[in-house]
Each structure stands twice: as structure tokens, then as C-alpha cells.
Design goal:
heterodimer, B: alpha+beta, 3 helices, 5 strands, globular, binds iron/sulfur cluster
Chain lengths: ~375, ~100
């Protein structure tokens, strides 16, 4: 493995625990692997607690409890108790389904720090269509209950062609629900979103209008609501600094125990991701070939290796490089200097022919079994 | 962390008088991080790594003690230093970023 000083210096700050791949919702842009039905086993309570302890010892301080729907784990309260004891700052990332009064009370007592609640849209019709359940009213009730229980709330809405034009009512909803944070995350095209890409890619003017509305909102509400806008990177000239660089600040652990440097990395071919049941996290972070594969800058090729911007964007996202160019060590094709940038432009054009593309695919067990093969980058 | 806010410049109209009482909203948590050998301020989706001075100021903000008392206490702990200016600048910046409020 190439040695460089950068490697030993970094410590993980974030641990994302994907407690389960089970979920009662069926979002069309779900970031779980398309073949999640192949990965049904789940870590035990004890294994998760050990992962928490080991991650904390390495320096991780922010803990995301995610899924699937983490509330489907009956041991969630126990896990939160342990996270709190370890002084993690814990975040429950939830659809809201299953978050009743009793669990809100128990989780609060266990020391849960904040909750990120997802809405698919500000209208009942589109919300319930995109996740293929009737959950809009429930989510509204949960949002109000969260405030009653004194939780800081991050409202998360994934944006795409179907809801970008609802931006004004989405912003209004955040204000009405008195959340502290609003995360407006433009769809990133991996997993289910990649399969549904031709449907979800917005028009550029939709993005421009929505971003301008968001900016006006920010100026009006000031610190009352902090708004994060995650860009739609296909429309950018430069890639996102994915995870601040591979193996730099972030570890995800999947429901079945794989440790990943990015929660999409499972789909990368040729890499063996270690399972937390077989190796201590300390070895995984510092020594494992998978976490060192794209760490630092030595793995880079042209155009990245001689590019002054590599310290800023780390060559972009490895998973996106693989998905769009077939080569995980290439420059992220979002970059206009990438020889594969044409693939992104092609995808942007293809949105106009979506009528002829296959139907919108919901995240369901049936579709997972049927389309799993596509998740490995078949284009 | 990628979402840490930049500390903006102090606003033109100062928020803090000697008798105002600063307060850290409950969603922010100050703690010592062994791995980083520093205090950090944790909040949803982010973290700010604090300088020693910043940590000394934040540790003293309890929602009861006024700016004047805070400065006096700091000057007792670090004799010989004139800290009023630094403290005010820090409070204004924290207020602009949302992690310090004024008790009303
Ligand atoms: S994106 Fe939707 S379907 Fe996927 S895990 Fe989250 S709530 Fe469930
Ligand atoms: S060439 Fe590589 S390092 Fe340079 S801007 Fe593009 S992706 Fe970033």
C-alpha cells in the first residue's frame, strides 16, 4: 500500500449505522442497494454496541442511526442508550413510521439527540405517490410530536423533477412545523435513483428557480431555520468532494455488517469490504485494503493526478466514477475535465425521452429481486 | 466536517451589552474530544472544533451569568489579560451563526 502522511492523520468523525434494510416505504430514489433482498441478515444488538464502542475509540462523535427504517429494530432504545453513554451525538434518520408517543418518550429518555424526518413532498398526493404508502398525515403528526417532546428536528426532502416546483410550499411547511434545520437534497443518482434517473432528472430552470426561492427564504428566516441545499451534481462542472475523501472522516456500517467508506460503496466491484463481525474497526479503518484503496491522492490518474483542484474535490465520487465510466479510479464524470463527461450530458438529454423509458420503479422486494443485476452499473 | 459553517464577521449592531445574558441553545453540546485533543461544539449534522479560548468562553455560558460576569471570571482565571474585546467578538460571531443566543 502506498504510504503518505495524510493517511495516518485522519480519524473518522461520523459513523452511519444502517441498522436494517427493512422499510415500510417504497421511495423511488431509495439509497439502499437495489439488491437489498440478498442481504437479509442483521447485526445483533451486541455487535452494534461493540461497533459503537470501537468507532468512538477511533474518534467518531456523530452517529447516524439509519436504515431502511431504524424504528423496525426493537432494540433501538438500547442502542441509543449505549450511544448516549459513549457521548455520541446521535441522530435518528427516519421516515416517521412507528414513531409513536411511547417510543418518542423512551428514545428521549435513552438520550437521543435529534431526529431527521423525511418527507417526500409538501403535498399529500405526491408524498404518498413517491413512497407508495399513505404516510403524509402520519409524518405531519410525527413532526408536531417531535417538537412537543423537545427534539431538534432536521426536515429532509429529496428533490427531483416532480417536486422542485413545489419548493415554495416545501419551505412553508418547514416554517410551519418550526423545524430547526431543513435539508433540501437534490437526488444523487445511485441505487434506486440511478434506475429511475430518466424520470428524476430535473430541467435546469427548475433547479435555478428552486435555488433562488431557497436563497430568498434563507435571507428572510435567518438563523431560525438553517437550510442545507445539496446540489444536483449532474448540472455542475466540478464534482462534489465525496465524503471529504475516501476513508477520511466517514464510516458506514451496513445492516449485515460491512464497513464502507461511503454508504454507496457496496456496489463497487473488485473491492472486498470487511465485515465488522470479522475484524476490529481499528484495523478496518487503518489497515484494510478497502479503506486504503482510494485514500489520499496516490491512486489518481490523469486528469486528476496533476490537477490543482484535487485537494478540494478529491477527484469526486468513486461510486459515480464507476457507475458512469465503468472505472472506479477515473475522475468523477461530473467533472468537465473528465473524458467521460459526455455520459453526464447524455443523461441530462435523456430526460426528455423518459416517456419511452421503462416505468418508474418503486423500491419493493419484487423489484429488488428483478432488477438487482442493474445495480452493478449496467447502463 | 463538510457542513461546518464559516464564522461570519461580527454584525454592525452589537447584540451584547455587559448586562446581557448569553445562552447556548439546547441542541448544541460542548464536550471534550480525546481523539482531537480539543473541545468541540456538536449540533445536528455538524461539529465545530474549538480553540482553547473559545472553549474557555463557552464553558462559562450557563444561561445565568452576564457578559460582564463572564469577562470578570475569565480575567480572574487568566490574570493580566484584557479579554473583553475578544469575548465580545466571539459572542457576536457565535450569535450570527446561531450557536449563541441572548436570554430575553
Ligand atoms: S428512502 Fe424511503 S424506502 Fe428507502 S429507506 Fe428511506 S424511507 Fe425507506
Ligand atoms: S480533474 Fe479531477 S481533481 Fe481536477 S477538478 Fe476534475 S475531478 Fe477534480
Amino acid at each position: 500500500m502506498p504510504a503518505d502522511g495524510f493517511k495516518s492523520a485522519s480519524k473518522p468523525l461520523w459513523l452511519l449505522a444502517e441498522l436494517t434494510y427493512r422499510c415500510p416505504l417504497h421511495c423511488v430514489y431509495c439509497s439502499n442497494p437495489v439488491d437489498y433482498t440478498r442481504h437479509r441478515s442483521e447485526l445483533s444488538t451486541d455487535s452494534w454496541m461493540r461497533v459503537f464502542r470501537e468507532a468512538r475509540a477511533l474518534g467518531a462523535v456523530q452517529l447516524g442511526l439509519s436504515g431502511g427504517e431504524p424504528l423496525l429494530r426493537p432494540d433501538l432504545e438500547e442502542l441509543v442508550t449505549e450511544a448516549h453513554r459513549l457521548k455520541f451525538y446521535s441522530n435518528l434518520i427516519t421516515s416517521g413510521v412507528g414513531l409513536d408517543e411511547e417510543r418518542l418518550t423512551r428514545l428521549k429518555a435513552a438520550g437521543l439527540d435529534h431526529v431527521q424526518l423525511s418527507f417526500q413532498d409538501s403535498t399529500r398526493e405526491l408524498n404518498d405517490f413517491l413512497n407508495h404508502t399513505r404516510t403524509f398525515d402520519l409524518k405531519l403528526r410525527v413532526a408536531l410530536a417531535l417538537k412537543r417532546h423537545g427534539y431538534p428536528v432536521v426536515l429532509n426532502v429529496v428533490l427531483h423533477r416532480y417536486n422542485l416546483d413545489h419548493i415554495d410550499t416545501i419551505l412553508e411547511m418547514a416554517e410551519r412545523l418550526e423545524v430547526e434545520y431543513l435539508e433540501l437534497a437534490n437526488t444523487q443518482y445511485y441505487g434506486w435513483a440511478f434506475l429511475n434517473r430518466t424520470h428524476l432528472i430535473p430541467a435546469r430552470d427548475q433547479l435555478v428557480r428552486a435555488e433562488a426561492a431557497t436563497q430568498r427564504f434563507r435571507e428572510r428566516v435567518g438563523n431560525r431555520i438553517k437550510v442545507y441545499w445539496v446540489v444536483s451534481d449532474y448540472y455542475e462542472e466540478r464534482p462534489k468532494p465525496c465524503m471529504n475523501g475516501w476513508g477520511s472522516v466517514f464510516i458506514a456500517v451496513t445492516a449485515d455488517g460491512l464497513a464502507l467508506p461511503c454508504h454507496q460503496a457496496r456496489s463497487l466491484p473488485g473491492l472486498v469490504f470487511p465485515n465488522v463481525q470479522d475484524y476490529p474497526l481499528e484495523w478496518i479503518w487503518n489497515e484494510s485494503p478497502a479503506f486504503n484503496r482510494f485514500r489520499g491522492f496516490d491512486w489518481m490518474r490523469e486528469p486528476c493526478v496533476s490537477c490543482p483542484e484535487r485537494f478540494k474535490d478529491y477527484g469526486g465520487c468513486r461510486c459515480q466514477a464507476h457507475l458512469l465510466s465503468g472505472d472506479a479510479a477515473a475522475a468523477d464524470p461530473v467533472c468537465s475535465l473528465s473524458p467521460h463527461h459526455g455520459r453526464v450530458l447524455e443523461a441530462l438529454r435523456s430526460k426528455e425521452t423518459s416517456d419511452t423509458a421503462r416505468a418508474l420503479l418503486f423500491r419493493t422486494d419484487e423489484n429488488s429481486r428483478k432488477y438487482a443485476k442493474d445495480s452493478n452499473g449496467e447502463r | 466536517m463538510d457542513k461546518s459553517p464559516e464564522i461570519p464577521e461580527s454584525p454592525k449592531n452589537p447584540m451584547f451589552a455587559p448586562e446581557s445574558v448569553p445562552l447556548i441553545p439546547p441542541r448544541y453540546r460542548l464536550q471534550w474530544e480525546e481523539a482531537q485533543q480539543s473541545h468541540v461544539l456538536l449540533y445536528p449534522e455538524g461539529m465545530i472544533k474549538l480553540s482553547q479560548t473559545a472553549a474557555e468562553i463557552l464553558k462559562r455560558i450557563d444561561g445565568r451569568c452576564s457578559v460582564g460576569e463572564l469577562v470578570a471570571d475569565l480575567e480572574r482565571a487568566f490574570p493580566g489579560a484584557d479579554l473583553r474585546g475578544d469575548v465580545l467578538e466571539f459572542l457576536e460571531a457565535g450569535h450570527a451563526s446561531g450557536w449563541i443566543q441572548v436570554r430575553v
